[in-house]
# Entry
Amino acid sequence: MSARLPERGRPWDELSREMADFKRDDLDWRGGRHAAFVWHADEAVEKVAREAYALFMTENGLGLRVFPSLRHMESDVVAMVAGLVGGDEAVRGAMTSGGTESIFLAAHAAREWARQHRPDVTAPEIVAAFSAHPAIDKAAHYLGMRVVRVPTGSDHRADVAAMAAAITPRTVMGYASAPTYSLGVVDPVAALGALAEERGLWLHVDACVGGVLGPFVRELGYPVPAFGLDLPGVSSLSADLHKSGYAAKGASVILYRDVVREACGRWEFSDWPTGLYAVPTFAGTRPGGAIAAAWAVIHVLGAEGYRRIAATVMQARERLVAGLARIDGLHVWGEPDLYAVAYGAEGLDIHAVADAMTARRWSVGRVRKPPGIHLMLTPVHAPIVDDYLADLAASVSAARAGAGVSSKTPVVY
Ligand SMILES: Cc1ncc(COP(=O)(O)O)c(C=O)c1O
# Structure
């Protein structure tokens, strides 16, 4: 792959038109045709994120000494997210580029913590449910750790007894999701925390999807299982602001239970010409815009804004689930706790249904095991639930008409 830079620069108005045109085949997330990737609250919130991002686009989160503005906004965001997930004054944390980086930092801290407390362990292992996000495997790969995946229980949540049985003398870390990406169920974090305490493990809670909105959904009266830092045995938690925090992309929070655990996550270096290099994240340079946009969105929405979003997406979920129940052969997988849902089918290939939905211009999330169709509901989905269900009923009929024909579309994230 190689190309030459254009010799002459071109005017921005021409380029911006061209760039807008690049989008023509992109996912129509404004119209709610998407199953994942974009969390859009409304145009007013989008404008705030865009303008706040632009205000701090040039500032660098690597230099908190010279940008006290970013230091202030980052610590405010971290403290507010900690407050949402049961954190107390002891909690420490940082903003990262996303869930993958937050999870990487948690795994790194767990490995260092084990090196200090269990130096006999030379090949550290992480016990995680089959439903855990691959970010933990990516982290383990980079960190020389191994993930032992354990089948989920009949409710599709982490099976605590099976995870306990998978612990070996090499296990240093346990992993829980709140909720899982694929089916949207929250793992039994309280029981996994108790297990972690009993067996001397670091438990990370991946609340990348549910960390910000989950507490508001619970406040509305939905029975969201506890998953916070107030549960004994939870050492770290990740929550993505660029998902249910409705902030701009490039914003997540990694939280450590206390300063001792945070210290395990730090990496410092001074054997180079410029002296001590110490950053709390994997990234060096960090976009000031992402920090600023997260701060502005949290403040413009406030608790009442998130409560409103939570109500909208949960009502959309209820209408979707009720509509699915009216389509012969379809059923929801498990009991989703938040705004992510997946459904499967009896007697027909659900992925053939997915193909028919794709032909009707819906971007469909496919689940391989159990076979299903997945979607993450956001406020832009609320007005299109009926259209979605009408196309779904037609797609089920189309799949039945072609009965015996299985989808050949590979299941790719
Ligand atoms: C449960 C869960 N954890 C972690 C991640 C990784 O987050 P990111 O894509 O922001 O790195 C995702 C992404 O969808 C997720 O759903």
Observations:
- The pocket of pyridoxal-5'-phosphate is lined by residues 98-100, 133, 135, 177, 181, 206, 208-209, 240 (CB under 6 Å).
- The longest strand covers residues 171-177.
- The chain has a mean pLDDT of 97.
- Residues 83 and 134 are 27 Å apart (CA to CA).
